[in-house]
Write a structure and sequence with these properties.
By secondary structure, the protein is mostly helical. It has helices spanning 2-11, 17-43, 61-89, 100-111, 124-148, 154-159, 163-190, 195-200. The chain is built from eight helices and no strands. Bound molecules: protoporphyrin IX containing FE (HEM).
Length: 204
């Protein structure tokens, strides 16, 4: 009886509370990780450019590292809660990308500004983006752990081809997440009706 009531309650919202909480905590953690990560990068750039100081978090390398490690715990803890819930509740079914045909059709529709976007159901482009960013999230965390503790976690570090290769992997996984965020925010701006349900839960 209690189970039934619970089930009925979750059906009354588009996005369950746990999804909304983990989504916004994750958004906060990602923004902090990007800003502090760019501060750390600027101390020893991998490429011929640095990030503009206005976009960095922490005034110097030490503060950047302190923010990065503190936010890492939030990102990982929150990410584990989200992934566990996604797997156990069956929510993962909404995120699995369809075949290449459907993805191509939806990409063409998106470029022509006529992609259908329903609240609560994800189209092929969204599924591809969401599953892609989750994968990039796993890679960014594992490569980050490898360059944080290369001695203690040497098998992980070796998996990425050593410390220097892990640094590049970490950078490109970060770039993929930043790119996702730019596309994600553009899509939300183009279809603003999807935003309120991600805050309040919304009615199906
Ligand atoms: C910072 C501003 C952000 C805004 C305004 C925002 C907004 C939204 C909205 C409105 C949805 C629901 C889309 C729909 O129902 O069609 C959504 C879903 C999602 N967002 Fe964001 N988002 C933000 C940041 C992020 C970040 C930083 C990430 C990850 C790096 C992220 C990953 C996701 C994922 C994976 C979903 C699908 C969630 C699921 O159903 O499991 N978002 N976002």
């Amino acid at each position: 009886m209690l189970d039934q009531t619970k089930r009925d309650k979750t059906k009354r919202v588009i996005h369950p509370l746990i999804l909304r909480l983990t989504h916004w905590l994750n958004a906060f953690a990602i923004v902090m990780m990007l800003g502090s990560g760019w501060q750390i990068y600027n101390a020893s750039p991998l490429f011929g450019f640095s990030f503009p100081p206005i976009l960095t978090i922490g005034q110097w390398l030490g503060a950047g590292i302190a923010w990065h490690l503190a936010m890492m715990w939030l990102l990982v803890g929150n990410g584990l809660v989200y992934l566990t819930w996604t797997l156990l509740s069956g929510h993962w079914r909404k995120l699995v990308p369809p075949g290449p045909g459907a993805i191509w059709r939806d990409i063409r529709a998106a470029l022509a500004f006529r992609l259908k976007h329903q609240t609560g159901a994800y189209n092929a482009v969204q599924r591809l983006l969401y599953s892609g960013v989750l994968l990039a999230g796993v890679v960014v965390v594992l490569s980050g752990l490898a360059i944080w503790k290369p001695i203690q976690l040497w098998p992980l570090c070796n998996l990425f081809g050593g410390f220097y290769a892990a640094r590049y992997v970490h950078f490109f996984a970060m770039a993929a997440i930043a790119l996702f965020l730019a596309v994600h925010l553009t899509l939300v701006a183009m279809v603003p009706k999807v935003l309120p349900p991600m805050i309040t839960g919304g009615k199906p």
